[in-house]
Amino acid sequence: MTVCSLRPALCAAALFVAGCASTVPQFYSLAETGSVAATGSAPSGSSSLFIEMAPVAMPERFMRPQMVVRQKDADGAQVDILEQHRWSSSFEDELRDALGSGVAQRLGAVDATKVGRPPGAKVLRIGVQMRQLDAIEGTRVDAAFSWTLRQLDEDRLTACRAAISEPVASGTDALAAGVRRVTARLADSIAKSVSGGGCVG
């Protein structure tokens, strides 16, 4: 006679706990780890430069914490929403935070989006639009972005765009790391456009 035949309620509870444990989501972050190497020289007086990252514009299907991936070998129209593989916050917030921190670190600037700014400080507003993000497991991550730069006290607007592709190995962890590398490269390009290096496409 088995233990489960003697104590069915106990076994049912154990199976329920095991089932819940197997469906705990895996969370990922776009934040860079380790030191960030500046890819362009900081502008003159960079210690007083404040940047403000506007909310990132993107297709509605990405406005969720779950990872959205394109099916491999599909006809290009099918995507999967991975319930068990999620960003640590909604993807648009995750991307905005990572870009704000990344650009600020590269320029030696202050991310006013998070800490605010003193009265009279010059603030550079950065608006980013994600036009494409095709993440295909075991293949690559293809992305396209555009962004604008504008001093809040000026009318002059600078507009740039970039297409970025990163190869990825098999597995969702590798796919998340590929999106993180795309984000880091976008932060590089934005920082260069701020520091006077021109738009990098």
Q: How would you sum up this structure in a few lines?
A:
With 201 residues, this protein is of the alpha/beta class. It has helices at residues 3-6, 8-21, 91-107, 112-115, 172-194, and strands at 26-28, 50-53, 66-70, 79-87, 110-111, 123-136, 140-151, 158-167.
How does this structure look, described?
The chain has 201 residues and is an alpha/beta fold. It has a single domain, classed as Rossmann fold, CATH 3.40.50. The chain is 31% helix and 29% strand. The protein is built from five helices and eight strands. The strands form two sheets. A five-stranded mixed beta sheet has the order 5-2-6-7-8. A hairpin with a 6-residue loop joins strand 7 and strand 8. Helix 3 crosses helix 5. The longest helix is centred in the C-terminal third of the chain and has 23 residues. The radius of gyration is 21 Å and the shape is elongated. About 10% of the residues have low confidence.
CATH architecture: 3-Layer(aba) Sandwich
Low-confidence stretches: 14-21, 35-46
Task: Tell me about the largest β-sheet.
Answer: 5 strands, mixed
Number of strands: 8
Cα shape: elongated
Please state the average pLDDT score.
Answer: 83
Topology:
Blueprint: H1 3-6, H2 8-21, E1 26-28, E2 50-53, E3 66-70, E4 79-87, H3 91-107, E5 110-111, H4 112-115, E6 123-136, E7 140-151, E8 158-167, H5 172-194
Parallel strand pairs: 1-4, 2-5, 2-6
Antiparallel strand pairs: 3-4, 6-7, 7-8
Helix pairs in contact: 3-5
Overview features:
201 residues; alpha/beta; Rossmann fold; 3-stranded mixed β-sheet
